[in-house]
Amino acid sequence: MPSWRDYVQDLPKLRRPLRVVLPCVGIDGCTHALHEMGIDVEATNVYDLIDGYDELLRHHYESCSKVVPQLHLGPELGDITKVALTDLIVPADGICAGPPCPPWAGNGLRGSDEDPRARVFETVLTWTAQLIKSGGLLFAVLENVVGCNQKIKGCPSFMRQVQDVLTQECGEFTWKIVTLSAADYMLAQTRVRVFLVGFRHRLGALPGPMEPFGPLPLREFLQGDLPNIARKTMTQCMQENLKNMEKTLAQDLKAGKLAADDVVCFAADRAQGKVFKQRYSVNIVPTLTTHNRYLFVLTLDFKKSDSKRGFFRWLHNRQRMKLQGFVEDYADKLDSLALTASGNAYPVPLLCAVLYPIVQVLSQWTTFEQWPNPADIKQEVHPVAATIVHKLACAIKRSSAATAKQTKAKAKAKARKSKAQANATQKKQGKTTKGAKSQKASGKNRKKQKGAKVSEALWKRPPSKRSCAFIWSDSEEV
């Protein structure tokens, strides 16, 4: 099977381990990506709310790093919003974080910075500023869903506003927003992610991501010894949903919209005619989340029995891991946490695409070993780090106010235009009515004039030739 790993060659060894800060570490796609490049990594400030990742992370760091970092995992120890800036381990070369996405996800309320869960992103922003100013940071990679880079109520996107504030407050860095699709990097998944990438000026221009590796069909990720399932093991509702989907697929196959060798994936818990519509993906799976547990894959060989069809089964957690760029064995090690872990993870090839050019620059930097200057490393909180979230909030507020003002001005202009059009129409109708009345009056006058002419003509005739023999008069004399 072709692999995205074929496109990630080993880089020259760095002169010392690369120190990377990992808030919201999850199952650590970042050090997986760096390990694929042959880079020695020293993970620091490792935090996550799920303590069930402990064993897997320790095993991972033992295999790819000389040092197993201190892990801060669980609802209490792993909550970065409770960590003081003075407790951060410095110096650090990079920070890589993917804070929770619900404030910007398309299937949520999209509350953006007003969502309480956005506090995690704001904390990561604070850490980034502190490490740039006082921790020797060289690069930053902040990842999230596409929604964080979309306008909300006409205002600039949240990610764009973060970029503007960081550009203003952390001028030592160049900042750029990059959008990458997993399908372009040999993962058969519709996942699209936004990366805010920062790079210290003294290293030169911020390098762009690697070029896409190309697509890889879903079939390549499903090969293995996993058996097809029996239809009767599904719930009655899901069996009905499956039946309806197969009917739709058969119609689309007959209409030429599908090919006989296509592999289809759909959510078996979605029914026709409901709020969440029943959809299917062809030769690719939809974005893997922590909730779409019931993804079902099948081939279009309907005439065969279910057991003999190419694929007729649930999307297994082993395949979910593979579709995120991790090894399949992680699903077995994580057991019940595999769905959550795969849904929350960064796709490893996307991180390779972003990090590879950055680390390539570092590998050519002859003084990397001496960076940073110990005199520049300070433990106390830097003023920029202390105020950056407030400045972001003010920027968002100003932007919202300006947008509201523009919206109000547009509404007034539209109202004025509508009123002008209505007045013009009314005036036109008034002229038409006046013209009609004038025409009517003119018609009456013409009739009177015609009648007068006729009467005058009659009186000029001799009495014997007049049409009327009697003359009526209001006078007493006849």
Features:
478 residues, alpha/beta, Rossmann fold, 38% helix, disordered C terminus
Name the CATH homologous superfamily of the largest domain: Vaccinia Virus protein VP39
- Biggest β-sheet, characterized? 6 strands, mixed
Question: What ranges have pLDDT less than 50 throughout 5 or more consecutive residues?
Answer: 468-478
Mean pLDDT across all residues, rounded?
87
Q: What's the number of domains?
A: 2
Query: What portion of residues belong to β-strands?
Result: 5-15%
Corresponding CATH architecture of the largest domain: 3-Layer(aba) Sandwich
Q: Within the CATH hierarchy, at the fold level, what is the topology of the largest domain? A: Rossmann fold
Question: What's this model, at a glance?
Answer:
With 478 residues, the protein is an alpha/beta fold. Helices cover 38% and strands 12% of the residues.
Describe it for me?
This protein has helices at residues 29-36, 54-64, 119-134, 158-169, 219-222, 236-254, 317-323, 329-334, 338-344, 348-363, 383-460, and strands at 18-21, 41-44, 46-48, 71-73, 94-97, 139-145, 173-181, 192-200, 263-267, 280-282, 295-299, 312-314. It is 38% helix and 12% strand. A 6-stranded mixed sheet has the order 2-1-5-6-8-7, with helices on both faces. A 4-stranded antiparallel sheet has the order 10-9-11-12, with no helix packed on it. Strands 3-4 form a two-stranded parallel ribbon. It folds into 2 domains: 4-216 and 341-405, Rossmann fold (3-Layer(aba) Sandwich); 227-315, no CATH class. With 478 residues, the protein is of the alpha/beta class. The protein starts with 17 loop residues before the first strand and ends in an 18-residue tail after the last helix. It is built from 11 helices and 12 strands. The longest helix has 78 residues, at 383-460.
